[in-house]
Amino acid sequence: MNRLEALLAELDDDQKLAVMHGEGPLLVVAGAGSGKTRVLTYRIAALLARGLAQPHEILAVTFTNKAAREMAERVESLVGGSLRGGFVGTFHRFALKLLRNHAREAELPERFAIADEDEQRQILDRVMKRLEIPSTRLTPRAARSRISAAKNALLGPKELESRARGDAERLVAELYAAYQDELRSAAAVDFDDMLLGAVSLLEHHDALRKSLVSRFRWLLVDEYQDTNLAQARLVRLLGGKTPNLTAVGDEDQSIYRWRGAEVENILHFEAAYPTAHVVTLGRNYRSAEPILRAAAAVIERNSRRRPKKLSSEVGSGAPVTVYLAADEADEARFVADEIGRLRGSVSPGEIAVLFRVNAQSRPFEAEMVRRALPYVVVGGTRFWERKEVRDALAYLRLLVAPDDVLAFRRAIHVPARGIGQVAMEHLERAAATWGVPVPEAARRLPVELSPRARLAVGEFNTLLGELRALAADAPAAEVVRRLLDRSGLAAQYGSEDEDDRARRANLDQLVAAAAEATERDLDLSGFLDEVALLTDADVRREGDAVQLSTLHAAKGLEFAAVFLVGMEDGLLPLRREGNGEADEEEERRLAYVGMTRAQRRLFLTFARVRRVNGQLLSGRPSPFLLDVPRELVDDRTAAAGRDPFRSHAPQPHRHGARSPADFREEHSGPRSTDHGPRSSSRHPDGWRPGLKIRHATFGSGVILQVQGTGAQTRLVIFFDRAGRKTLIPSLAKLERA
Ligand code: ATP
Ligand code: MG
Prior knowledge:
Distance between the termini: 67 Å
Largest sheet: 7 strands, parallel
Shape: globular
CATH topology of the largest domain: Rossmann fold
Number of helices: 30
Bound molecules: adenosine-5'-triphosphate, magnesium ion
Structural class: alpha/beta
Low-confidence stretches: 644-681
Mean pLDDT: 86
Strand order of the largest sheet: 13-14-12-15-16-11-19
Number of domains: 5
Helix content: 40-55%
CATH class of the largest domain: Alpha Beta
């Protein structure tokens, strides 16, 4: 069998049609688990095997870095080597690469910085103060999302202004213009600017666009239903007159409207590309029959979709397990119990707990910690948002781009070197007078600085100079290590206190991440770009661990067992405060995405009472849960000695009068933890790992570790809501729960 035959042998007839399609636009639209991503990767391999494409002519894009990495791996294993010169990655990565390579044409400074979320908000704060816009009229958060929406819809400040109706909209437009100016003067772009910048670059530089069109002859886009206008436009520009574009997607899985996704892009694909060939796939290779039928019953109620039928190739399987928990702690216990049971046959990495909002992960984390189950919280950006990590990154950015104003404003203050507001104002003013960036003004040491500030700024400059010299030829990890040492960043966290230890561990991880980057042939600036491109769908380190993830971040992935938790009206579908209406169809698609991640086992759970962000909600079951046909369900509530799911009257009962503790009393009896302390050594005061406690501010938690005795006693506690803390029990007023 030759290579092409071998590829085709692993596909069904419809998939083959798509894989073997020749030139011209192709749309593959089909339900979850039908092999769309498989078609896309096999198509790349087939184009190469048939000699229709060269590796460097392939441009394949998808949504998350994780999905992109998986795609690249699949292609490499099919092709038997890397796609030399081709591109497999996210839209943002492609756009950034383009802008870095053509910064001048894009009218960007050569080493432009990428402002992260925090910096974007700071810039908005500054601008709003300058324009005297009170945050009662518009919060920086709201402003940021309005500006982001405009960018994703390809609207610049002027366009937004000309469309503005009413004062509120004009205000956003004004703010947008000022925000852009401020970003520009800091030599920075934000995340959305990458796409916008790439589009505008190609629109204004015909020769460049033409060279890219002829270079990347084959375009392939996965998850097309979640493209926004900017992405669709970018694809259009890269396609040229006769696009060899393969778009793959499922309108039922469009879940990024809040980030500007336009489901119309896929629904109207044939209008945009009239010569498009359309292939639909009808077989599901992922999920057992009951899971597939349950998911279909949920999604069928949406109106804006093409009806489709999926048959299960996997065949029959266990029914969908449903569990009504007393509260979120009970829900977490149930999930952990079931995971324990599954572990005999399923490895932890093949299990996912999926939820609607990040705040839901806490009780599950606590339960995983308590039982020593390996887990990872998807949302790897959190690590990069830690203060100590961001401080170090600010320095690193300054090594690569000495005039990175945003990084300078951060780094100069850590560790504290006595540069106060007055000194900063001198520097900012000097920069304005000389018409140079603030870091350059700092290098020139303006005379207005006090002698003490001069000394401090001078030392800061010297340190950066020294590290920059090192960075010129030492590997990234070495630079990070020296930075942490010489700057005093690490020394700030010298104590044996749990917090300091955690921070030191994070800094060590930063060194490790830099070392990994070096292994992948990235230099320091490549490493920093990679960090800037991370999104909340990325996992920092994988390994064999249960994935706790939002529904959004689980798109495209599959797991042997899935727990879709928090299936309550108000949570899924989510209704946010001050925004009573849920986008019911989009929320339904989210539920569908979650359910269809499951291969063999699907668990749907909901809680009668739940605290989310400190608010007590009393749950009616999600309407999506009620759409699941009863004959597909195995209801485990009764087995736990509680009202069975069927008789649970869907009564509106918001902000319940009863406290969750009441329910715990009633219900947690026989099932409550048999997972005692891991260390059996008893503390004289009775503190022991595993003990549940309550704290006036942090709420309920569990002791992880007991250090010292008597007045020296310290307890490391994991609080359900507040996370990990180290407390001195004699001061902290702890109660046993
Ligand atoms: P989603 O809509 O969730 O993105 P998808 O349509 O992209 O799903 P894939 O992830 O490509 O689906 O495929 C789902 C699973 O089915 C994968 O494990 C894939 O390897 C497997 N699969 C797809 N087609 C076949 C086939 N013809 N034979 C065997 N397995 C297949
Ligand atoms: Mg897919």
